[in-house]
Amino acid sequence: MNHWIRRLLLVAGALLPSIATASSLPAIQGKWQCTPQNERPQEQSWVTYDFKSDGTMTSQEWVRYQEEQQTQLEFNLFIDYRYVVNDADYMLKPVKLSREIITDPNNSNPFDYAARRDLTGYRIFFKPILQGDNEALFDMWYHITPNKHFQMQCKRQGVV
Question: How buried is 146 (Cβ within 10 angstroms: 0-12 exposed, 13-18 middle, 19+ buried)?
């Protein structure tokens, strides 16, 4: 089940260099519902990101992994982040993590101490590419793999 670890690490993140105020990109503030652009058939997921003007963001991710039409792992992951803006990019740093295991028939325990420590050590960078007022593509990458990007297609979930 190494693929779920990679997916978990794709969700966590943080921001540090060239710190600007969070309000310098007000177009991104608010709640966004996102889905991975290149989701694999055995994996289903969605993420909500709620950006606040005080430089914090909360997220909820739902993930389900299936093999042979049987759910192997399903969970909700809740992460609180601090974020900063660096030019047109954001950096996310996880500060609090909680999870809810829905299904884990193989007892894989994806959130043991080491996995949570690794998850909270990650920084995620991303560039929001606005596609109108209520849609965006989040081009994202981890600090340890800056050349490997992944994209989330997002829709705003209400008026800011």
Answer: exposed
